[in-house]
# Entry
Amino acid sequence: MVDSGAQTHTSRQMPSETDRLAALADLHVAEGGPEATFDRIARIGCAALRFPHAHVTLITHNLRIAKSHDPSSSDEIPRSQSICNFTIQGYEPLIIADTLLDERVRDLPSVKKSHGMRSYWGMPLTTRRGYNLGAFCVLDTVPRHPVQSDLEILRDLARLTVECMELRAQASVDVLTGAASRRALYEEGSRLFNALGETDRLGCLMLALDHFKLINDNLGHAKGDEVLRDLAVLMHSDLRSDTPFGRIGGEEFVILLPGEGLAGTYAAAERLRRLLEATRVGGLQITASFGVAERLPGDASLADVLARADEQAYEAKRAGRNCTRPVLLAEG
# Structure
């Protein structure tokens, strides 16, 4: 480790940015704001390394997302303004003992502001397959130089953070909503798909909440989480207990309907759309855009059905939201 931000070079080749972002999406952790689990890890980091601030961050295509609370900064800032963007470019700790001496970061807003960040120690959040999702970092307003034991603690806390993310992704239930996890829904859906006879039907309904980002931006992620939880409860109340229902994205849910063709799936989507339209969810009046599809003879896997439902949900948003696509019956 070399001071002032230089990292130890390794022969390990970095994955492409496309693959890195796909790995981040697969873990389903970037949605929502800070979480208690990562707040606890950050507090341990502060105590163990004697720093006033510690953070768990994720780096998306264009944002740095905070997964632990940071009173001094918003939950999302442009990726270009985050030192963690440099941390994910390697597999070793990024140690910047004095940010004012590092030309890469000295002009960043977090450094230039009054009582700004003067030292940064960061460790990439590296998955078992070598994808850097973000960083675990500690910050201080004075220059700080680590010793070897500090670096080991930094590595351990980053590894612990990733293990929490990976273990949660393997769970069969989405911890926020109680719906099936993305992984569990795909496994159950694939089992159903592979068991279908030549004439058996399988409908797929995808719903995406309308303007969900505005809820998070204007009312906070806690309100957004409340909306997602209440939505899941509402959907469960209208579905049979054995109906596969899962959360596959931030505000996206999928319902699989064995035995239903396109017309039956459309009717189910319209019933749920009107139920949501007539119900306050999380104390708010919200709507969703629905896309429907059915298994076709040429489909090779469940992914083909899901892709068509996803495309139709997008078409519903383009059509003005709060509707179902494709249109099969007279609306209204």
About this structure: Confidence is low (pLDDT under 50) at residues 1-10. The chain has ten helices and 13 strands. Residues 148-170 form the longest helix (23 residues).
